[in-house]
Every structure is written in C-alpha cells, then in structure tokens.
Amino acid sequence: MKLKTRYEEMSQPGALDSYNNFVGQDDDYRDWYGVLGRSRDSGPLEESNFEVALAQLGGESEDVRVERYGHWGVGWVEGIYVRPGSQALAVAEEIAKCLEEFPALDDEDFARRHQEEVQRIWARMSDRQRAEHFSAHRQDWVVRGLWDLIGGVVYGEFYGGLPYESTESLVATY
User: In whole angstroms, what is the distance from residue 156 CA to residue 43 CA?
Assistant: First the structure.
C-alpha cells in the first residue's frame, strides 16, 4: 500500500472528503503523508490499529501529527500524518506494509478491544435479544452451569460465546 499525501487523500472523492468541502486552516501540511485514520464510528480494529500505529511512530511530535476535524457524516475524523523525509515516514511505510499482509497491527490489542466491545453490546441487549442470540449460537458457548447461563444470558453480566464468528455476528447485528 503506497502512502498518500494529505493533499492526494483529500483530492480524490471518497475516503474522508475533499478539499472542495474543507473549511479550516490548512497550514502547510498538504505534503505530509497519511498513515491511518479513524472516526466516531470506527470499530475495534480501526481503533486498535490507530493507537498501535501512533505508539509505533512515537506519538505526536514535530514529525507526527494527529489532525482532528468535525465531519458532517461521521461526526469527527482523526488522521495520523508524518513529515516527508523524516524517520517517522520510514516507520509509517513499514506500518503500511504490515497492514497489507495482515489486518491488525497487534493481535492482542485488537482481541482485547473486540472483546470489550462485545461485552458492552451484550450488556445493552434486552433479555430477549440475548436469549435469541444464545439460541442461535448455543454450540459456541462455554457454560459451566446454570448460574453461568443465568448470569450471561438473563442478566447480561458476560458474553460466554468464544469463537470470533459468533462475536462478529453479535457486533454486526447490534
């Protein structure tokens, strides 16, 4: 994946928006390279990759900026940008290369964030929704006894389904 400059990203309709719709101070960052972005609607994978990439780049600095914008469609948008010719650009290119080969920069961080999201969704679901999901994915659950079943399904204290496919259907549905 070739990194694009901020100007290239925003000159092509689609991703974030375009310079035609940009209202704000542009400063002189048009030639900086975009690494990753996230928005209010980002899921655990985008959140994980954004935070891990920012950490790998050493956080915000003279060579690494996090640009933040309000956006009409998704509420807000953030993007990580690196200075051309900097050491951070070499790290950003390595990050892009890693993401071509595998979708998560850090499996453990992504898995933790995904599980936290599943737990939040599970706790907000109604008793009926939890019971329906449990019935549809009963084979995926680890239940050690009646109290696990009551605590998990009836009270929503924890999500007891293990396989990723089952949790993905939960995130996609609710």
Answer: 21
